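Page 37, continued from 36.
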């Protein structure tokens, strides 16, 4: 019997698709649910699985040809011998088409990478804290707590000898004549640390793309066209703030193991930034808006549908966390992991890439300090998250000004100046900064 392969519905707003590549040739054997061809829409590239096992007897639509949803793409001979005319009516075949459109079961999604160190460090002794001893090669020393501070008093150990500690986890409290300070555990030292001068450059291999001229993938062209359109139609500029996320990173370090066991996903820093950004959008609706040029109106959204930029082999895609402003940290973490996993497994659907009212790009996950990101079409702002790095910073306390090593990051807001003024951008960024620096997520994290 000949089984028809049709173009399934790929999303509510998708009415057609372009066949970009056949993964099987006529006469080849295929298995049910095996990827058969790739189809591109204006939102995503999708693999279409075979609806049945058999031989691909006829290809009806050539590569680079565009057809409507429901069009016949190919025929598969399943070997039963029944002629195509005796196939079940189209209404009875609909469930099979729906099965073909459904994505295969997901592998466990990977959380986005973090720049935070997580090597465990053994609990030091009191001698080590004073600089006179070590714990398996890792010294815990009293850091400089101010220009005029020459000594400190250990007021409380937060860990006992034999306890397990994580790098950057609060280890003890030290009091000076100016301020009380928590001293974090250092990262475990390697058994034989090489001197800085002896570090080697990474081993690099030449890419096979060098010297090649290849056809531009359709998804790459769609991304490029959208970016050029946005730059041509908007008056874009960017504002940047620096954020101290030391408290936030300590909270995450304390909560991540229990969170992963309880929620089934890793706790990366990303959900905290999404949570803070979505909260701030409720107070600053001009950032979460859309200009309706044809009507000469502005729509201020009452929902926070946050797109998250995800790097993949096929290019940058932006799946959307729907109603992010109503989710807690766990809900955002699960949605982020699920959507990123679908993008990297090529299982994301057009509907999951649609409807964003605001976007976040985590360029820091690849080490960039900050970026001047481009506002997507149909939105008026996008938030960029830079890498979190440790560096000396001035700390204002009730007792005076001190200098300490802090976890710092840059936040960049690119925006359409036709609607968003620089003062609007600054107000939004300082609100996000205040939420992150306060780090008041203990209740949600169960701490």
């Amino acid at each position: 019997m000949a089984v028809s392969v049709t173009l399934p519905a790929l999303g509510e707003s998708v009415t057609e698709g372009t066949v970009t590549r056949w993964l099987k040739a006529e006469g080849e054997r295929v298995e049910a649910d095996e990827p058969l061809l790739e189809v591109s829409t204006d939102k995503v590239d999708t693999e279409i699985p075979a609806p049945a096992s058999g031989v691909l007897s006829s290809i009806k639509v050539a590569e680079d040809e565009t057809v409507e949803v429901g069009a016949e793409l190919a025929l598969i001979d399943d070997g039963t011998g029944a002629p195509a005319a005796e196939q079940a009516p189209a209404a009875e075949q609909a469930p099979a088409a729906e099965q073909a459109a459904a994505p295969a079961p997901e592998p466990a999604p990977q959380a986005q990478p973090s720049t935070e160190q997580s090597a465990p460090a053994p609990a030091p002794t009191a001698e080590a804290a004073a600089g006179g001893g070590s714990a398996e090669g890792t010294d815990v020393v009293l850091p400089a707590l101010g220009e005029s501070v020459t000594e400190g008093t250990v007021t409380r150990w937060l860990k006992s000898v034999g306890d397990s500690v994580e790098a950057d986890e609060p280890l003890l409290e030290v009091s000076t004549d100016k301020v009380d300070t928590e001293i974090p555990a250092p990262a475990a030292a390697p058994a034989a640390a090489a001197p800085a001068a002896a570090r080697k450059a990474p081993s690099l291999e030449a890419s096979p793309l060098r010297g090649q001229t290849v056809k531009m993938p359709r998804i790459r062209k769609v991304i490029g066209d959208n970016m050029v359109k946005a730059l041509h139609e908007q008056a874009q500029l960017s504002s940047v703030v620096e954020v101290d996320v030391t408290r936030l990173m300590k909270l995450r370090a304390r909560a991540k193991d229990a969170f992963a066991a309880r929620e089934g996903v890793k706790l990366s820093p990303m959900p905290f930034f999404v949570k803070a950004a979505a909260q701030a959008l409720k107070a600053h609706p001009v950032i979460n808006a859309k200009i309706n040029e044809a009507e000469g109106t502005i729509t201020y959204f009452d929902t926070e549908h946050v797109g998250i930029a995800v790097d993949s082999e096929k290019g940058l895609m932006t799946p959307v966390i729907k109603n992010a402003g109503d989710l807690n940290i766990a809900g955002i973490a699960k949605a982020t992991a699920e959507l990123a996993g679908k993008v990297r497994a090529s299982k994301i659907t057009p509907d999951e890439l649609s409807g964003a009212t605001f976007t976040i790009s985590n360029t820091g996950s690849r080490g960039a300090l900050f970026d001047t990101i481009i506002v997507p079409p149909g939105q008026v702002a996008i938030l960029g998250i830079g890498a979190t790095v440790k560096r000396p910073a001035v700390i204002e306390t009730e007792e005076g000004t001190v200098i300490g090593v802090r976890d710092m990051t840059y936040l960049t807001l690119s925006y359409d100046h036709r609607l968003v003024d620089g003062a609007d951008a600054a107000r939004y960024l300082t609100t996000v900064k205040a939420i992150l620096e306060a780090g008041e997520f203990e209740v949600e994290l169960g701490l």
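The chain has a mean pLDDT of 81. Flag for discussion at group meeting. Residues 246-263 form the longest helix (18 residues).
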